[in-house]
Amino acid sequence: MRPGLRAAPDPDFGPDAVEPRRPAETGPRLGLALGGGSARGWAHIGVIRALEAAGIHPGVVAGCSIGAVVGACYAAGKLDALEDFARSLTKRRVVGLLDLRLSGASLIGGDRLRRRLVADLETRRIEDLPVRFAAVATELGAGHEVWLSRGPLIEA
Questions:
Q1: Separation CA 154–CA 156 (nearest Å)
Q2: Bridge-partner residues for 32, per DSSP?
Q3: CA atoms within 13 A on the CB side of 11
Q4: Which of 15, 73, 79, 110 has its Cβ near the most Cβ atoms within 10 Å?
């Protein structure tokens, strides 16, 4: 885990802490849990668009893997830029983003996608976002679930 990220359970974020940071809006209150898997992750963008078109504005978002990327961009107000990027992808561009590795916890490192996100999210901190957000990860050593809800957004 990189310095500055909070790995301990966060009493300010979880099932009992669902107050949105932005002012309450009319309509239902909703929290989103966004999952992993590239195709599913890109589909999350459309779901968020449909919810907002219906007047439903999620006040809290949590995600893992690509769901964390989509959730972070939504919470930071950068979903348009992520959607433009996703719509520009071709098979060739997807292969160009893959950084395959034979060691570590995954076959795809995500470093190239991370570098693409840095321009828009580099200085943002999770706790300063207008929508509450957490990235959900697994601590490899112990196998425990970790909610990253404070610190640099790009690191989470």
A1: 5
A2: 61
A3: 0
A4: 73
Q: pLDDT per residue over 37-54, tens digit each?
A: 877 778 999 999 999 999
Entry pTM:
0.72
Both tokens assigned to 40: 């599913």
Number of neighbouring beta carbons within 10 Å of residue 13: 21
Task: Concatenate the DSSP letters of all residues of 85-112 into one string.
Answer: HHHH--HHHHHHH--B-SSSS-SB--HH
Tell me how far apart the alpha carbons of residues 145 and 136 are, in angstroms, rounded to a whole number: 7
- Distance, in Å, from the CA atom of 146 to the CA atom of 144, rounded to the nearest integer, reads 6
Inter-axis angle of helices 66-75 and 38-53, nearest 10: 30
| Residue 141 region by backbone torsions, left for phi larger than 0, else alpha for psi between -120 and 50, else beta | alpha
